[in-house]
Design goal:
It is a single chain. With about 220 residues, this protein is an alpha+beta fold. Helix content is about 25%, strand content about 20%. The strands form 4 sheets. A 4-stranded antiparallel beta sheet has the order 2-3-1-6, with helices on one face.
Amino acid sequence: MMNRPIKESERNQEATVYVGNLDERVTEALLYQLMIQAGPVVNIFMPRDRLQEEHQGYAFVEYRGEKDAGYAAAVLNQIKMFGKAIRVNRAAQDRERDQDVGARLFVGNLDPMVDEQVLSDTFSTFGALIETPTISRDSEGNSKGYGFVCFDSFEASDKALEAMNNQFLMNRPCKVDYALKKDGKKHGDEAERTLASQARQNNPAPSRPLISSTPTPAPSR
C-alpha cells in the first residue's frame, strides 16, 4: 500500500473512491483496514497540512478494479469511524449520469473549507439527493472551487437554486446554476422537464437509490 500524492493521470479514476468526513484520529493504516473489506487496495492518499502534518479530513483510495471501487461506495458509505459517518463515493463522474439526470446543479465560488458533506447537509434540505455531491479536486486533493449536486426532481433543484444562489457558504457567496450538458446547453430546459415529468408518470419509483443517512453495515466477505 502506498500513501503518496500521485498525478490524476497516474491514478485510475474509475477505480478510485473519495473518502470524506474522516475523524482526526483516522490513520492510513486504519482506513486501509476498512477499505480492504471491499477489495484489493492499490493506493491510499491522505492529504496533510504542510505545517502541522495533520490530515485534512479526506482521502483518495484506489482499488485494483472498477468493480471494487463501486462496491466500496455502495457498502462503506456512512460507516462510522470514531463516531463519525464517513462519506464514500466514486471519484470519477458517471458519464451516463451527466446525460440522464436533469436536476443537476453547478455550485461555484466555493470556500476551500467546503467539502462534500457540507454540500450534502446544505442542499439536502431542499429535497432528496440521488447521489453524494461531488467537488472537483486537483491532483493534491485540493478543491478547485466548484462542485455538483443532483436532485431527484426539478422542484427541489429549483428551490435550491433560488434559495442558495449568492448565499454564503463558509466565507464566500456561492454561485448556483444548472450544470451544463455535453452539448453546451444547460440542464433544466422545458424539453428536459417534460421528459422528466413523463418518466415520473410512467415510473413513479426512483431509478436510483436516494442518498440515505442510515449507516450501511459492511458485509462479511
